[in-house]
Amino acid sequence: MPEVIAVENLCYTYPDGQPALCGVSLSIQEGETVALIGPNGAGKSTLLFHLNGLLHSHEGAVRVLGQIVHDKNLKTVRRQVGMVFQNPDNQLFSPTVFDDVAFGPLNLGMKEAEVCSAVQQSLEAVGMTGYEKRSPHHMSLGEKRRIAIATVLAMSPAVLVLDEPSANLDPGGKWHLIELLRSLPQTKLIVSHDLEMVQELCSRAIVMDGGRVVADGSQQDILKDRILLMAHRLAAPNL
């Protein structure tokens, strides 16, 4: 399958001198759903921020659909790599759902009819048709997550990158989210401490710790390796 994301020997140190990534290399193919797991402080979120240019390092390289991510192509890269943050309130800032979902297409210069179509299709994809005039700020966390995903889908990305998508959801909300993500055709990279979600959604898992990739394999093999999981402060799911 075609390679959609390639990270090559990526290193990054924050301005305060705290190292976050140390020689990270990985490759994700079109159509894969990949989990990125590891303890807090492993470098997972820092890696995500490099995939669409929110952070940039001079050590190593990140390629999206064959293009090296740099300042001159950020608009293109950010359209291809749709990032869904852990806190949906970081993405929802407009008075209505329609305005939030339309924001990206409008910035791309789409015509009014194209914007309306993108909003309609995105809300339909996440099961939120009819919410266009609602205020996102008065919704449940699960509903906000769906709208946040819709704001990204409206840009027609090739890749969805999700940071802890099931965090703080009740069991019903989590399983609705799992079914939603399973239905989406995009390549997906999911950062999660929820290994039950990983087991349900992902065919592959990458373990990070100390800013490095320490394991990369099938989800089944990784989640069955209790010694590996314990060594990196991860709780094995009930298989």
Describe this structure in words.
This protein has 239 residues and is an alpha/beta fold. It has a single domain (3-231), classed as Rossmann fold (3-Layer(aba) Sandwich). 36% of the residues lie in helices and 26% in strands. It contains nine helices and ten strands. The chain has helices at residues 44-51, 74-80, 97-107, 112-125, 141-153, 171-183, 195-201, 219-224, 226-231, and strands at residues 3-13, 19-29, 33-37, 59-64, 67-68, 81-84, 159-163, 187-191, 204-209, 212-218. The strands form two sheets. Strands 6-7-8-3-9-10 form a six-stranded mixed beta sheet, sandwiched between helices. The chain has a four-stranded antiparallel beta sheet with strand order 2-1-4-5, with helices on one face. Strand 4 (59-64) and strand 5 (67-68) form a beta hairpin. The longest helix has 14 residues, at 112-125. The protein is globular, with a radius of gyration of 18 Å.
Summed up:
This protein is α/β, with parallel strands linked by helices and 239 residues long.
**Beta-strand level of the residues, as a percent range?**
25-35%
Which of globular, elongated, flat, extended, rod-shaped describes the shape?
globular
The percentage helix is 25-40%
* Oligomeric grouping of the chains: single chain
Give the SSE order as H and E letters: EEEHEEHEHHHEHEHEEHH
- Which class best fits the helix and strand makeup? alpha/beta
Total individual domains: 1
- Terminal residue distance: 29 Å
CATH architecture: 3-Layer(aba) Sandwich
Number of strand elements: 10
CATH class: Alpha Beta
**CATH homologous superfamily descriptor:** P-loop containing nucleotide triphosphate hydrolases
Q: Widest sheet: strand order?
A: 6-7-8-3-9-10
The Cα radius of gyration reads 18 Å
Mean pLDDT: 94
**Number of helical elements:** 9
Sheet with the most strands?
A: 6 strands, mixed
